[in-house]
Amino acid sequence: MRAMTRLDNETQALHRFFPQFRIQDPHGARKGVVGRMKTNSGKEYVIWLALGAFPNEAPSMYVVSPKPLRMKDGRPLSVLGPSAPMHVLRPDEHGHPQICHYNDVFWHPMVSLYKILMKARLWLEAYEQHLRHGEPIDKYLSHMH
Question: What does the alpha-carbon distance between residue 50 and residue 61 come to, in Å, rounded to a whole number?
C-alpha cells in the first residue's frame, strides 16, 4: 500500500468539509482547486485556487464567477488592482479578482487548503457586507500583522 501524499490528505479534507470543491489536474501545469461556495445570503461564487508550488508557497485564490465581480458602486472590483482596504491582490489576466488570504510572512507549508477556503468564505461574507453597506472589506476583516 502506498503512503498518502499531501494532495491525498488535502483531497480527503476537501471531500469532508468542502465537498463541492475538487483538485483539478493534480500533476499538470494547471494544478488547482475549483468549486462553488454559497454564502449566508444564498448567493453562489466559484473559487479557483492556482496551486503552483503549494504547499511551499501560498496558492493564488480568485473569484471566477460571477464575472465581473462588482463593487457597491457598480465598477468591477478588478479595476482597483491590488487594494488593501478590499483585501485583493492583482487580478489575473481574465480580470478575476485575487483574494488576499495569507501574507507571505505568515505562510507555512502546513497551512491546509481547508484553512484557505475558510478564508475565502469569510472574504465572501465581508464582500456581501460591502455590497450592502458600501464599506470596504477591511471594516469586516482585519489584516494579518
Answer: 6
The answer to the question of residue 116 being in a domain is yes
Give the global pTM: 0.91
The answer as to whether 48 is a domain residue is: yes
Phi, psi of 130 (to 5 degrees): -60, -45
To 5 degrees, how large is the angle CA 130–CA 131–CA 136? Answer: 25
Looking at the domain assignment, is residue 145 inside a domain?
no
Residue 26 has pLDDT above 90, yes or no: no
How many Å from the N-terminal Cα to the C-terminal Cα in the chain? 43
* Biggest distance spanned by C-alpha atoms of the chain: 56
Q: Please give the residue range of the domain that contains residue 39.
A: 6-138
pLDDT tens per residue across span 103-140: 888 899 999 999 999 999 999 999 999 999 999 999 99
Q: What length does the chain have?
A: 145
pLDDT value for 7: 87
